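Run log, item B.
One chain of 747 residues. Sequence copied directly from the ordering sheet:
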Amino acid sequence: MSDAPSTGPLRVLVLGGGGREQAIAWACRQHGHDVRLAGDLSDASTDDTDLVIPGPEHVLVNGAADECARRGIPCFGPPSELAQLESSKSWARHIATDLAIPGPRWMHFEGPDATADATAWWRNMGFDIVVKLDGLAAGKGVSVPASERETIAAIEAAGDGPFILEERLTGPECSLLALCDGITAAALPLAQDHKRIGEADTGPNTGGMGAYAPAPIPYATDELLAIFVQPLLDHFAAQGTPYVGVIFAGLMITNAGPRLIEYNVRLGDPEAQAVLPLLHSDYAALALAGTRGDINSIPLKIRDGSSVTVVAASPGYPGTPDTGAPIHDALADTVSNDVDGTITLRFDAGVLDGATAGGRVLAVTGIGPDLGVARTAAYKRLDAISFPGMQVRRDIGWRAPGASLSTYAAAGVDIDEGTRAVEQMKAAVESTHSVNSGRGVLQGVGSFGGVFSGATITELHEPVLVASTDGVGTKVELAASLGQVRGVGADIVNHCIGDVLVQNARPLFFLDYIAASVLDADMVADVVTGMAEACRAANCAVLGGETAEMPGVYQPGAFDIAGTLVGVAERDSLLPRTDVAAGDAIVGLASSGPHTNGYSLLRMLFEWVPKDVVPEGMDRPLGEALLEPHRNYLDPLRAALDADTSPIKALAQITGGGLPENLPRVLPEGVGAEIDLGSWPVPPLFRLVEELTPRMSTDERYRTLNMGIGMVAVCAPDDVERLQSLIPEKTWVIGRLVASDRAVTLN
């Protein structure tokens, strides 16, 4: 082992001039080193250079490290032979496959038959693919087609190649940046890049529109190094060509574990701008130690807190950018230390004489005690910068809030606590049920709605009244923030209609309650209009309600709504029937969205995403999907409920608690349910939630959200076909009742 690297000032030459190289230079200067930047070795003398740090991949592919070796200058980067890890995706995939490094299924194509062969391979494999040009493409040589037409077009655009097709994996991505000395590696904080040009990861790929660190990935960096980096180091060392420099492993965290997306041979851009400001250790000293095979001689110290980097790009990027526009920056200094303890940095990339000179013009980085504070600092700094047509993603870090959640309680709502509250109040409520000689209350606490016999009021024998009181929950906050409140008026009515419908009651009248810090007459009118429209559709009257103005109780601009609906049913037709039994089938009706449940989670997941964007796979803006009103199930179920010898034995509305906690409410003792996941199409919004919450279990997710099923009907197996024929829309057999202790199993 060689002597430990000097801790004195070094003369460092950084190759490249983009934002990544500016961040490398900044990191080195923080420890007193003399740093120069040059495009490549031909642009600068190396006679007085102690260390060369190549920034972009092309200088390494073109042999910068090889030339440094000939000149006897330490260079923290691999020789051109090993730089093929980035310059040849097929070479990298072959090595990764030989070393059993987990990744997607793939195939290389080249030559006049490449298009036909690739198309045939894709069709034969039967899965979605990613098309990658087999060479350097500045982060833009990747196509992620979303349809058959787009897939064929992407393959045809690749021409004769060379290119590779890879199985399209799903899950959050992260960047593992490993500093390697030929024998071992030290990892910088995990980062998450934002490759797409548009919010919610939409549009074409770019070189990177922003990044944050550390990324909340459920794997330790040492574990990831052992899987994706150490095998490479061992392999190259055994070949007599030790790898010195950065290995950037682009990973995807799938349901089956982490998988390799690609290797790069340098720090990422903009990951470097996010990660290096978190490094307390001397980056130049680390790099020099790496060239001496002794990177562990420099302790790797990371700053507490988080960083967020946001890129500002020219109009036209990632295509042909428009350049030459003047840049206005109200804060002339590059580094800003704010009174709240945050630090902000500006790293120029495509800037020349105060004007735009490239696709990605500059990046700003905010550093703070947590991700939210760092993000706010970065965007505040960016607000001081402008140039014509400036492209900025407004959602950097948007995947982070959901990445660490494992339960709905972590979003501020505890379903179990609500269940315990019902159990604790049950005895007190049931103590009132002895009135009228016990002839009044038929179903009480724990049912979807209270059932009270009309005979005790009217002295009639058959009619019973069914009542439901409920609210809309935190969906109202989202509606208020987007100025779209009419839908929540329909939400409360239709939610209550569903609660009495499951007992086979038809709605009679509805009473509403609206409270706010300060009442806005226009807002109240809009909400009540939504209620009235929903009531008219259900042949139900709005009798009136209550409005309350409570400053100091509600935050300014916030409001809440609740309502009570009363319906009527024939006593001998009440649901659930007494013949519900193991073996019965469960038929699901589609929800229109999250309805009124799970919004504390949803608001947290999408807090940093503009609600006017259309995420991939969806056909409308995110805000519209989140605010889609709760649907009314009376019309689709009317014919089945009113039929002679109705096939429906029981109905359950899928509200808070999801399928696992709502189905048992209509099941007798000794009967449970099995639900077959995959038996119905999960809508795109819920699939996106699955992707954003990798640590949340399936059971927890299905307890929190309806996942596309808003109402279920129970019937005998022989009645399934008849029931489905009586419902004028697509339904699915999603499971069956089984002998168990009222438990629901998700298969």
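Observations after the first pass:
- The chain has five domains: 11-85+171-192+209-297, 104-167, 306-394, 434-574, 577-747.
- The chain has a mean pLDDT of 89.
Flagged for discussion on Thursday.
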